[in-house]
Amino acid sequence: MAARLSEPQPLLALVEALRRLPGVGERTASRMAYHLLQHDLQGAQHLGRALSEAVSRLRHCDQCNSFTEATLCGTCQHPERDSSLLCIVETPADQNSIEATHGYSGLYYVLMGRLAPLEGMGPAELDFDRALARATNGFVKEVILATSFTAEGETTAHYLSEALRSKGLKVTRLARGVPAGSELEYVDAGTVAWALMERKPT
Amino acid sequence: MAARLSEPQPLLALVEALRRLPGVGERTASRMAYHLLQHDLQGAQHLGRALSEAVSRLRHCDQCNSFTEATLCGTCQHPERDSSLLCIVETPADQNSIEATHGYSGLYYVLMGRLAPLEGMGPAELDFDRALARATNGFVKEVILATSFTAEGETTAHYLSEALRSKGLKVTRLARGVPAGSELEYVDAGTVAWALMERKPT
Ligand SMILES: [Zn+2]
Ligand SMILES: [Zn+2]
């Protein structure tokens, strides 16, 4: 990257601040800053306000750990949710994916991450004790582990599964297999191998 | 993308605002918002402030169109710059690349974009009249076109070249060729073809 020989301080400061976004390097941050300043001043102001609003107004739900403005989020407050089912997900986006199926009526716990020892994310950083306390509140009968099917997600699920089963809870995991609508030819070998092992009578 | 069934309004607003950044879709915006709120609240506040500072303090240099806090930027104000040379670039980042060579002592004009008719960027949107007025101020003897070597950058250079030469100015373009330090095997065919056509006696 070329040295910034002549750029004004507020521009340098904006580029630095944008670099703190995940996945944004110096070149991308510069491009973003130029774009906002040149073509979308309103967008820049808008984003500035949205950031301070979000920081000041959002907190974690006392029960599920997702983001909320109140003490309890809308899902946790909902009277028709089945409190005997608890689905553990990594992020609010994963919760949305499950909600979008309209096939789940239980409650959630959002870890806000997954075990990643190399990045310093261990059970303490993710506050697993709080997740376990939530699952062992006496109402939950089954915990569905819906962490990602990646190495880190699997490790997270394994760790939680051990801890939860030792407390006598029923623990399940989302099924793995060939995605709906896919042609076998284009599915990765690991997925096909799993689907073969987990084959079901028709 | 799953429907956001239960997310609080400040989070939705932040995701929407982040989507206005170039190259950021809904999924990336969500990931950025979760990251800031979960792991970098300070970064979120910092970015919010940097945005309002930049919007309120930065303006375009009266002479070269780059970003500056004063009427004229540091480069334009510099007493030792050669005002008979004018280099036209697309962005301040491109200007930095040329400054980093320490091989150019003239002045700049920053277009803040390039011709891209499909995106609605024509000569009027880029205010080419202002660039031409700058180049024909009576002091400039040579205009170096340093727009990108992409289809859009070439079109921009071609357009400006025609207009500037019709005003009797000497117009040059950065040389194309094989980049320093590259092995021919790994250079794209178009570049090699150019380098061959533009071959020089040794
Ligand atoms: Zn909740
Ligand atoms: Zn200037």
Automatic annotation (TrEMBL), chains A, B:
Residue ranges annotated as zinc fingers (C4-type) are 61-76
Domain Toprim: residue ranges: 84-179
Keywords assigned: DNA damage, DNA recombination, DNA repair, Metal-binding, Zinc, Zinc-finger
Identify the SUPFAM superfamilies for this entry: Recombination protein RecR
Transmembrane feature ranges: none
GO molecular function annotation? DNA binding; zinc ion binding
**Highest taxon of the source?**
Bacteria
Record SMART domains: TOPRIM (SM00493)
What's the name of the protein? Answer: Recombination protein RecR
Which species?
Jezberella montanilacus
